[in-house]
Write a structure and sequence with these properties.
Uridine Diphospho-n-acetylenolpyruvylglucosamine Reductase, domain 1, 4-stranded mixed sheet, 301 residues, globular, 5-stranded antiparallel sheet, 3 domains, 25% strand, Uridine Diphospho-n-acetylenolpyruvylglucosamine Reductase, domain 3, alpha+beta
């Protein structure tokens, strides 16, 4: 999808929105696959309502692109313009145990910055790839904690009201790898409250989490993290492993030998390779265990 109207291009510039035409989504996602479209980089989120109004007036469909670490995108010319929050000037703001964090901020760097202020609790999220906004949307968690435990408020562009709102955590439905945010809501920032802990204690916990990830995840390959959510009372990775599917290949996509719930782009995989591998594994799990696996990765087709 292309932004072609000179009037719209001029209006975007006035709103300090950077127009990047014909971008390859393969360059914006951790899986390294995806077609082309125009990306609008938003430097001042307060302009989101105006931007949406402009795109609607031109009849341009849109989607929001976050950090791209949990996303599988189809090939070819994409039928949407993508909105993306700039990652510049995303330093957290501290006030006692309260932290205001930009949604575009890197999650791991945010954990580290909080640790330097003797604020912990979120050490388990240190190796979760992607942005704070992505973590909020999917209620990211690891090693027994979820980000929702520390959220006090979320500021977002609410698609239903076409306005920017700040909502308390109590008004948000946080569930396992899912929240009540609408698909076209856009996270802007979050207010967190973290427990105080000595820096050395936090650093030691971070080291343990990093060592566990290095030992169990294919960190040096292109992936989107876990492909499937764990069904209640079961482990998707364990079931895939029990079926002997580690190393199974379809085109350029491979079930990781290190972690069976990670599918990696090892041999210049296409989106169709990865989607085919997902369908194949889901069918095998259904036949063997009776579970209908739900994707944790977000798929745009």
């Amino acid at each position: 999808m292309q932004v072609e109207s000179p009037k719209l291009v001029a209006a975007l510039a006035e709103l300090k929105i950077e127009h990047r035409p014909g971008e390859r989504l393969a360059d914006w996602t951790s899986l390294g696959v995806g077609g082309r479209t125009d990306i609008l980089v938003i430097h001042e989120p307060r302009h989101l309502p105006e931007l949406v109004h402009l795109l609607d007036a031109e009849g341009l469909p849109r989607r929001f692109l976050g950090g791209g670490s949990n996303l599988l995108v189809r090939e070819g010319e994409l039928p949407w313009v993508l909105l993306h929050l700039s990652t510049k000037e995303t330093q957290p703001e501290f006030e006692g145990r309260r932290v205001k964090v930009a949604a575009a901020a890197d999650l791991g760097r945010t954990v580290t910055e909080c640790a330097r202020r003797n604020l912990g609790g979120v050490e388990g999220l240190i190796g979760v790839p992607g942005s704070v906004g992505g973590a909020l949307r999917m209620n990211a968690g690891a090693y027994g904690i979820e980000i929702s435990q520390f959220v006090k408020t979320v500021t977002l562009y609410r698609a239903a009201s076409r306005s920017i709102e700040t909502v308390p955590a109590a008004a948000i439905g946080f569930h396992y790898r899912h929240t009540s945010f609408a698909a076209d809501d856009i996270m802007i920032s979050a207010g967190l409250e973290l427990p105080e802990r000595p820096y050395e204690e936090i650093r030691a916990a971070i080291k343990v989490c990093n060592e566990k990830r290095r030992a169990s995840q294919p960190l040096n390959e292109k992936s989107a993290g876990c492909i499937f959510k764990n069904p209640p009372g079961a482990s998707a990775g364990k079931m895939i492993d029990e079926l002997g599917l580690k190393g199974h290949r379809l085109g350029g996509a491979v079930v990781s030998e290190r972690h069976a719930n990670f599918f990696v782009n090892r041999f210049q995989a296409t989106a169709d390779d990865l989607l085919g591998l997902i369908d194949f594994v889901r069918q095998r799990i259904r036949q063997a265990f009776g579970y209908e696996l739900e994707e944790e990765v977000i798929v745009w087709t």
